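Lecture 7 notes: from sequence to structure.
We start with the chain below.
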Amino acid sequence: MNNGNKSRQPVLAVTSGEPAGVGPELCVRVVERKFPAHLVVIGDAELIEERLGRAGHGLVVRPWQPGMTPEAGVFDVLHCPLVCPALAGVPDTRNAAYVLNVLDRALQGCVEGSFDGMVTAPVHKGVICDAGVPFSGHTEYLAAKTGTPLVVMMLVGGGMRVALATTHLPLVDVAKVLTQERLTRTLEILHYGLTTGFGLAKPHILVAGFNPHAGEGGHIGREEIDVIVPVLEHLRARGMNLTGPLPADTLFAPPRLKNADAVLVMYHDQGLPVLKHASFGSGVNVTLGLPVVRTSVDHGTALDLAGTGKADPGSLFAAIELAIDMVNARRRRA
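Predicted structure tokens for the same chain:
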């Protein structure tokens, strides 16, 4: 992150995602709201210009270069050329390389200091995998690209922050991956992310159990006894404010959440259905543990809505606002 001028507005890269999806048209709608940041959309300039025109925004696309400042009437785009023409609603595996190049350019700008953070529109995992590139998601891809051994996915919305101890894994593999070492590091990353990115001095984290009823004292599985409890006791001794392991079926009751700053669940579908029910369309995906600020929309490419102009930009707007807040929180600590 560029700390050269703490008083200036953050500069954020906004990736346009799968070109056949709703990403490009959502990106051009950022002009509908005034954000306290300089937004630079990364994608094919002609595609972005076409989406601007279709949305009725009479702005001029300006090829962005590092150091440029915002100007009225222009829309800054860092051009990455499509491999082949993009048709709304019809993804093409040939453009998988383009999608990854867009991500790489955003990440490069963050690492080099041209951008203070990145906000990502949705990509289509299946299209990228069908192109011969193993891809399980932004989270894992950005971790690999930055050489980060472990990152933590956290969803923010509906008044909740829900982090995951494991991400895109088959359920049959979760118990094998959920070791004391992994859980310890996950909680350390989550705690640090809440303090640096959200300004919480001593965050209170609720930790879900792994099994139904948090294992019933070992009668419905031993993951709580063998893994979760020892980790929580160790980290409490180091000063962390942790409650758990708690049964996931009652963890999200309002009285329980009232005094909590975040929830850590053990696997993807243990917590995200609850959060998305409360916030779908306005939730934000955050990657903690990266050397850069990264937020994202909480939805997919919505191929059926692409090109219709009906896609809701609420989640993208929320992701931009959260990225701005996180950049500013990091600056205050720097």
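Points to note: The radius of gyration is 20 Å. The mean pLDDT is 94.
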